[in-house]
Design brief:
This protein has eleven helices and nine strands. With 282 residues, it is of the alpha/beta class. The protein is globular. The chain starts with 5 loop residues before the first strand and ends with a helix.
Amino acid sequence: MEEQSRILIIEDDLDVAEMLEAYFNVQGYNVATANWGEDAVKTSQLQPPDLIILDIRLPDIDGYEVARRLRNNRRTENIPIIFLTEKRTRADRLQGLELGADDYITKPFDIQELRLRVRNALQRSSQDVINNPVTGFPEGALVDERLSECLLREDWAILSISLAHLDIFRNAYGFIASDDVLRAVSLMIHNAVRNLGNTSDFVGHITTAQFFVITNLDNLVELGNRIRTRVEQSFDYFYPLKDRDTAKDQTQKLGLKFGTILPKHGPFATTEELKEKIVQHS
């Protein structure tokens, strides 16, 4: 690395903190540690790190309060936060994600997986990176730019495609398996647009699990049908053989949700209004 990314590890288990500090130092990062939440907040505000690895159980304020304070401060509001914790209930995970955490990893953890999550979070936060590191599809500023073009004309149609229950799949099989699903689905969407769409069509992310395609009304139905057919028939292959035909809550298995947004659903004054409509229609 030309310039080392700075990681702050907030962890009250000294053995875990020391191990993570040594590991990420070897990986080429500039690493600091804090064992108390209050100290971590002050350190982050004085010299904001590029990424924070945050335990929830701390001896003073908990990790949720640390994240809340960081998100409410202008100097630290955009720092990627990865929760690394023993708390594994769905409510705990949702609370972390609601506070704007970029990832939530439970202990015991795979150090190689944590390294990949750190790398991906840093890539997403970089101003120079405008593509999702897993799928390669545009997100962020480039998405806003293309959606803003839709506000200036009337000859567009948007197909919204959401991966349902990806969080449940991730909890059961891990982030690496979840990323494999995202890559495969993105490839099938790309191939469908390449074969059926126009050269001006655009594919991007609203969220990690939500894709959208800007196309025209003539291609909308056929494109949606092609994507649905290709993706849905592949879902079983992402599961281990022992889980493919089990009766355990089939309603929580991977699935697709589709929606369509047309100019008549507006008017849309801003890109945020258009993005909100895309989210609502999937």
